[in-house]
Amino acid sequence: MLLYIHIPFCDSKCFYCAFNSYTDKFHLKQEYMKALKLQLKTELNNYVKKHNKQIETVFIGGGTPSCIKHHEYKEVFEIFKPYLIEGAEITTEANPNSASYEWLENMYNYGVTRVSFGVQSFNNDKLKFLGRSHNNKSALKAIQNANSIGFNGINCDIIYGVQGDTLESMKEDFKQAFELPITHLSAYSLTIEEGTKFFDRSSVKIDDEELSYEIFDYINEHGFKQYEISNFAKEKKYESKHNYGYWEHKEYLGIGAGAVGYVDNQRYYPIKSIEEYIKNPFNMEYEPISQEDIKTEKILLGFRCSNGVELSLFTQDELEKVEHLVQEDKVLIQNNRIYNKNFLLSDELALYILG
């Protein structure tokens, strides 16, 4: 089982961000963390302890986890540590402007093994355009600090497909990243979502599939192997185990306002409002997930990453379509699993087989 912990506070709201996060509710931080710890204790007892399970990975995301002072996390770690498998991967997201050396060092001492920095770009003009609150110097310093502290894994997020992006301009970002002691790179294409400042400005996004292929080739050429549509790792051991858990359709606890969980073939959705969550962290909506939906999700997610899909999931009619894709050199079959050769075509391949 996986554990996700959501921190819904941010220093500033990026223009493309649709996550459940707030910049004007810092006065609720302490009350929020109390409610979060109450939910965490209860759900670990109900879903993990009672069923004699263990937590394989932990991911602290947001929002901006580094907006919360390190000492507020001490009890959170004390609560979940007894349930961890040995050598569990524990990741925290962090923003360069708030992840001080002290914060990173204390999180490392609590047990965090991996830190993911929302850098997005090393170009100050692009950072300003995206509404980011840090600059390139703070990004460089944060990554170097994490390395000197001793983190086993350091991820750097980069966004592409933004107005003005070219292969040459993106190479500058990636060159800078490659010079840093990172072990993992996430390269995301900008998405425009409802409720963001960019929503009514479609011109800010570039839809250029060729640029995606060129960027992927460039990253692979520099020693980072693509293992999912947006994720690249220097070595197998640096791939995100937590993300793999989602792609493998493992159960996960979602702790915090708006943090989705998945247990007993149903998803649950805690209320998004911080104020309402503080009043009652167990106010949730539940959605049963049918076996057909589970199958579809396993295929869609399996095609998006190097994990692949079990052949036993497919019907005879679907296997005939799989065989056609093999003949077209779109997919590969090994050890009773089907592997996608082109992650950018993952949705199309899945829909072709299931359609």
TrEMBL record:
GO biological process assignments: porphyrin-containing compound biosynthetic process
GO cellular component terms attached to this protein's record: cytoplasm
Alphabetized InterPro entries for the sequence: Aldolase_TIM, Coproporphyrinogen-III_oxidase, Elp3/MiaA/NifB-like_rSAM, HemW-like, rSAM, rSAM_sf
Subcellular location: Cytoplasm
Record CDD domains: Radical_SAM (cd01335)
Cofactor names: [4Fe-4S] cluster
Entry annotated with the keyword Transcription regulation: no
Keywords for the protein's UniProt record, in alphabetical order: 4Fe-4S, Chaperone, Cytoplasm, Heme, Iron, Iron-sulfur, Metal-binding, S-adenosyl-L-methionine
Family: Belongs to the anaerobic coproporphyrinogen-III oxidase family. HemW subfamily.
Record-linked PANTHER family: COPROPORPHYRINIGEN III OXIDASE, RADICAL S-ADENOSYL METHIONINE DOMAIN-CONTAINING PROTEIN 1, MITOCHONDRIAL
Role of this protein: Probably acts as a heme chaperone, transferring heme to an unknown acceptor. Binds one molecule of heme per monomer, possibly covalently. Binds 1 [4Fe-4S] cluster. The cluster is coordinated with 3 cysteines and an exchangeable S-adenosyl-L-methionine.
Protein name: Heme chaperone HemW
Organism field: Poseidonibacter parvus
